[in-house]
Write a structure and sequence with these properties.
Layout: H1 3-16, H2 20-48, H3 51-54, H4 63-90
Helix pairs in contact: 2-4
Length: 91
């Protein structure tokens, strides 16, 4: 086992010691950070690329768009928790 695999093994052991409450908080925080990163990446692309290449007209963000984003974060967190559950029961 090389150094990188040993380091990864230490981090995985830390994750497997999480309680379910910690897993829920971790999955929500990870998905919120990924969501914010994707918004930041979109804003960066929007500012640096020519407008005609991306879209012709701006679409305003509506309340339903916001709620759909929250639902997406919750669904992604649930899928992450399912993976953690099956990983814990497998090993």
């Amino acid at each position: 086992m090389n150094f990188i695999q040993a380091e990864l093994s230490v981090y995985l052991q830390i994750f497997w010691q999480f309680s379910w409450r910690e897993w829920i908080i971790f999955s929500l925080m990870a998905n919120i950070l990924l969501y914010l990163f994707s918004i930041g990446l979109y804003v960066f692309i929007e500012k640096t690329c020519r407008k005609s290449q991306l879209k012709k007209k701006n679409h305003p963000v509506t309340r339903s768009d916001f709620y759909l984003s929250l639902l997406t974060i919750l669904c992604n967190s649930f899928v992450m928790l399912l993976g953690a559950f099956y990983g814990k029961t497998d090993g």
